[in-house]
Amino acid sequence: MNREVRHLLRTGPFEVALDAAIEASGLTLDRLCRRLNDSGVTVSRTSLSYWRNGRSRPERAQSMAALSRLEQVLGLPPSSLVALLGARRPRGRRPGRPPGTLSRRELWPSCGPILAGLDASADPRVDFLSVNDTLFLDEHTGERRQRTRLVLRAASDRVDRYLACSEVDDPAFAPPDLVGVAHARRGRVRRDAASRSLVAEFLFDRPLDRGEHTVVEYEVRLPDGLPLDHYYRRFSRPVGLYTVQLRFAGTPPGRVRRYERAGLRGPERHVEELWLGAAGTTALVAPSVRPGTVGVRWEW
């Protein structure tokens, strides 16, 4: 058992640890199914695939028996995967979103196809205490970078991840690229050229119980030369404090304004001018943000 698998068996989450253990074993899902079947345990290839990508988890007695045998086949300590499952997930219809919140697919419609294969249920299970975006734009080199810092609080027990969505509006450019992660581990990352979208999964160092906090920082590189005259962030839930820091290298714009929208589209409201310093920097500070969109627009 290699060091990465040993570490993931301590920290989880379940599907990431299982995926790493399967990769380290060198066994295909078909071979795993055959070995389990030879030992008298029946589990389908589809079930194993769903377990390792997070679409479902073993819960029934037959599935738990298969998981115990799978630990043996993969050469893992007894109950090492079982211990990562935590509390049983509720069955039936998922509870509705809390009042006054918006869905991811409502705010990020283009990310729907790549969100479909990921468990996005962690989104309503965290509260955003603060979100800070720093955007760097160099008109000479065409470089565009976005750094984000999130302060999160678990709204329920055993919250172990967060999913971030990002996209490029201009169809002539490629999706953003995740280039750095701090205070969390990089999970699954998916980029879709057709929708120009990026979905990144950030895994916490340990599962959080209700009321516990964590910090996640990450950096996204936007395509060089991407024409930009605005930047905005979408909020599915209320946020205690949102700040945007903009730095323009080269000729700064002549005018910068902030705005808000109740959703992704619609009329702009709370429009106001932002002061732009001589160094080409400005900042937006928005306390008590409601679900919707908060953005900055500039003109040369």
From TrEMBL:
InterPro entries: Cro/C1-type_HTH, Lambda_DNA-bd_dom_sf
Superkingdom field: Bacteria
GO molecular function: DNA binding
Name of the protein: Uncharacterized protein
